[in-house]
Amino acid sequence: MAEIQSNNETLTGFPFAPAGWSPDQAAAAAGLEPNDRHWDAVRALQEYFARHADGRGINMRELHDALDEKFHDSGGMKFLYKLFPAGPVAQGCRLAGLEPPAGSTDTGFGSVQ
């Protein structure tokens, strides 16, 4: 497993985690009690953001499709909505320590924040 340095701690299992991120702080901020399935989604989000950090921003539709494909065997987006009731992209990004992409939260449209 890859290791990174963050907050003077070695984070094993989160090779694409943003600087300053820790699982304990993330769980408290997201308002969840994460299990292994949550952490799998966090790793997928962190990896996606790391691979698409080219300055043009994250495309919400491409991220949605990538998550659906990644977790297809578990039920795709339906599975992810069970894990993250406030939205797999918005709530998942908060847990992953990432800025949710434009369009993932819209209070005028009825999204849950």
Task: Please write out the topology.
Elements: E1 3-6, E2 9-12, H1 23-30, H2 36-51, H3 60-70, H4 76-83, H5 90-96
Antiparallel strand pairs: 1-2
Helix pairs in contact: 1-5, 2-3, 2-5
Features:
mainly alpha, 113 residues, 5 helices
The number of strands is 2
State the end-to-end distance.
33 Å
Question: Largest sheet, described in full?
Answer: 2 strands, antiparallel
Q: Report the sheet-strand fraction.
A: 5-15%
Oligomeric status: single chain
Flag low-confidence runs. 1-10
What is the ordering of alpha helices and beta strands? EEHHHHH
User: In order across it, which strands form the biggest sheet?
Assistant: 1-2
Q: Report the mean per-residue pLDDT as an integer.
A: 81
Relative helix content: 40-55%
Q: Your description of this structure?
A:
There is one protein chain. This protein has 113 residues and is mostly helical. Strands 1-2 form a two-stranded antiparallel ribbon. The protein starts with a strand and ends in a 17-residue tail after the last helix. The model is unreliable at 1-10 (pLDDT under 50). The chain has helices at residues 23-30, 36-51, 60-70, 76-83, 90-96; strands spanning 3-6, 9-12. It is globular and about 30 Å long. Helix 1 (23-30) runs antiparallel to helix 5, helix 2 packs across helix 3 and helix 2 (36-51) packs across helix 5. It has a domain at 37-100. The chain has 5 helices and 2 strands.
